[in-house]
Amino acid sequence: MAGNSIGKIFTLTSFGESHGTAIGGVIDGCPAGLEIDFEFIRSEMQRRRPGFSDLSSPRKEEDEVEFLSGIFEGKTTGTPIGFIIKNKDQQSKDYDQIKDRYRPSHADFTYDQKYGIRDYRGGGRSSARETACRVVAGAIAKMILKHQGIEIIGFVSEIGGIGIDQQIDSLNIKNIESSPVRCPDKVIEKQMINLIEQTKAAGDTLGGVVTCIIKNTPAGLGEPVFDKLEAELAKAIMSINAVKGFEIGSGFQAARMKGSEHNDIFESDGSRISTLTNHSGGVQGGISNGMDIVFKAAFKPVATLMRDQKTVDSEGNTTILAGKGRHDVCVVPRAVPIVEAMAAIVLADFLLRNRSARISGQ
Prior knowledge:
By secondary structure, the chain is of the alpha+beta class. Helices cover 24% and strands 22% of the residues. It has seven helices and 18 strands. Strands 1-2-3-7-4 form a five-stranded antiparallel β-sheet, with helices on one face.
């Protein structure tokens, strides 16, 4: 396999490049009879698209999805769902200067080394433009999850070292989508915006953290030993452009705790077992325990800067790369729906895989 597909039963295979005619994908394994909410798909695409706020890339893409197969009279047929998203606002001339030059810390060099050829226009296949396909599949996965009462909520918890220190339960999640940085804390939001504007003026970029909560997850999802739930989530999230870290539950903090501090406390009301703490992030032994799944994704700063950088060309000569093009100063706010989408794809896949876990009635 060439690495363009994800999932075992509910699968997505994506295709296309940033400045090609279109990007698209094939979603397979979606059960028949699922009523498709096209307006919901459109709203999810609008959350991710460039230009969603004054702080994001000025590239203007409507990101309208054209479905080619697998849906009849508004419902899935059980056959592969093919779709495309036309690219309409390419400005390939902006990338002429990198035709024979490598952007520092970008995929330019590694793609060239692997394939011996690269589409330098907007980064080609390595561009985050491809993630629009993931959001389409994620929207359909969310429709499957909705039937099980599962809800996925993502938000920006940190940008450039400015972060939320409140407990998750105390945050007002209604503030997320009204915020240009998708931060639920209004005080921290303003600090983030000021930092982004200052960094933009300096021609630099910022990284940050997206926190994701999966609510109402049933216990029992996960396929030990190599397909543990957190392992598949980590793979899915780490496949997103610019992600350099994944942490679930107490994560790296667990390495500094004692077992008596980290062990989750269970209780029962006679009909349902729950936990009072959630250091495990909702997963134990690679299987969901019924608690909220909580994880974080760390995004590195955007590699393309709006100022001159020293680099090398394809002949190995040292040269200067001028800052040019349309790029986000910080991709983290736009990444929230992508993180949610990848989590939804993983959860939908595990729900369908769980149907074969035991004989009915056992």
